[in-house]
Write a structure and sequence with these properties.
The structure is a homodimer of 241-residue chains. By secondary structure, the first copy, chain A, is mainly α. The first copy, chain A, has two domains: 63 residues, Arc Repressor Mutant, subunit A; 143 residues, GntR ligand-binding domain-like (Four Helix Bundle (Hemerythrin (Met), subunit A), Up-down Bundle). Helix content of chain A is 66%, strand content 2%. A three-stranded antiparallel sheet of chain A has the order 1-3-2. Chains A and B meet through helix 3, helix 4 and helix 7 of A and helix 3, helix 4 and helix 7 of B. Chain A binds a DNA duplex (30 and 30 nucleotides) through helix 2 and helix 3.
Chain lengths: 241, 241
DNA sequence: AGGCTTGCATTGTGATCGCAATTATCGACT
DNA sequence: AGTCGATAATTGCGATCACAATGCAAGCCT
């Protein structure tokens, strides 16, 4: 404790609640917060070293994006569990929106984007070799959204972001169990080739295939009974803000 | 003023921020808040007779759902304007998700649902005759979502709700200009027929056609230059909470 | 000794206060 | 009289306090 309180003088960078939001969001996407575990505003606030207020704001956003769920009786919030129905709908939505974004990004791709993707993909492969699931999750997210952002479709991009936010925790759990050996990375090469040649339909197919492979694994895991409240002694471990 | 403050004793019905959310949401869907006009937390709070705090919470949700926008420089919030790009993406998303929901609802339709739809549709026709745009907006929303809720697809339903929230203000503006004479209601009969016979593809087509007609009007209006900041002396006029 | 109740700690929610920044309004100066 | 600058008001953000409700656990009673 005994954190210095510099009165947060200048309205410098970004609002605190935004930083808190990003922290929790990143923790969810990379699966640092396990599904099913309950979190409290004050505990999160204490962990991040801020007052409960900006945490409240961030949590409101995340609840609105369905990345966090709030028990209507308890009012206590937790990471929602992923039922088979939810997974089916999320897969359907992803299969529609993400290939569409890739197809829209293809004509707008350039050398810099491909280089950036190449770098991310190499980091991803490295993570796979080492077996670093966290790093794989981050890199995979970065790869997909580096493409999607290029589509210049703000509304669709936001929808895709919301979908990732909802399945993120489970991707982590599933991939953490399956092991990093069988994770899909091969389709990324196809996607990069398609982008390089500005082949919209090729990019669409590559992303669709990439999604299918990943979601197949998740569906298998959920059907195997991983749907409910995994992660026993889940320490929250939010990244430091 | 001099509002009584009964200390909000019992944790009775729902939280205040939820009621505030519904008020603003309803105002947006029915177009009571015009796009482009700036609103402030404290003014909204004063109008609703609550403290700025629950309004903040409600606004956070709405911003997360992109029903409200917040100027990154000013930090001042307003109803986002609808650009041609935004409209195109919203239309695409609606055209994908809403027929899908209708198709899923069809096999689960029953007599009670059809009766309910019939009642809503009669109210809608009545509103058309009288020329009550507000009432038409409410009835139209009720009609569509009475169907969509039947699909039992929570994730997709939430996405559809978010989309309506984003175009709501503009539907109101556009339909308010076009007049209620040429509003699409005929497709509703097709939809009800399809639901009555549990014809999934028929329901899908009917909703798709209904959307097309409505969106055509909006696109025409936006291209005609209604995209930016309509409603001059827009009084906010939130429904009473 | 077991089931139930009472007490305390924790939680979410709302209100109020303080602060920095932006906006609006009005006065002064050329 | 028109434009610029300074003061006052408003705004969003964050912190702290207050309160009702819930969760948890120890203690009591039979």
């Amino acid at each position: 404790m005994a954190e210095q309180k510099p009165r947060r003088s200048l309205a410098d960078s970004r609002a605190v609640h935004d930083q808190v939001y990003d922290s929790i969001r990143q923790a969810l996407i990379t699966g640092k917060i396990a599904p099913g575990v309950g979190v409290s505003l004050r505990s999160l606030a204490a962990e991040l070293g801020v007052s409960p207020m900006p945490v409240r704001d961030a949590v409101r956003r995340l609840v609105a994006e369905r990345a966090l769920a709030i028990n209507p009786a308890n009012k206590r919030l937790s990471v929602p569990s992923l039922s088979a129905e939810r997974l089916e709908q999320l897969e359907l939505a992803r299969q529609w929106i993400e290939p569409e974004l890739a197809a829209r990004a293809a004509p707008r791709a350039d050398e810099a984007l491909v280089r950036k993707l190449k770098a991310i993909d190499q980091d991803l492969e490295e993570a796979l070799r080492v077996g670093d699931v966290d790093r794989y999750m981050v890199a995979n997210h970065a790869f997909h959204f580096a493409i999607y952002e290029r589509a210049g479709a703000e509304v669709l991009l936001a929808m895709a972001g919301g979908l990732w936010l909802q399945i993120g925790p489970f991707m982590r759990v599933v991939f953490g169990r399956v092991g990093t050996g069988s994770l899909p990375a091969d389709r990324h090469a196809e996607a990069m080739d398609a982008l390089k040649t500005r082949d919209a339909e090729g990019a669409r197919r590559a992303i669709a295939a990439d999604l299918s492979e990943g979601m197949d694994k998740m569906r298998a895991a959920v059907e195997a009974g991983a749907g409910l409240t995994v992660a026993p002694a889940g320490q929250t471990v939010i990244t430091v803000l």
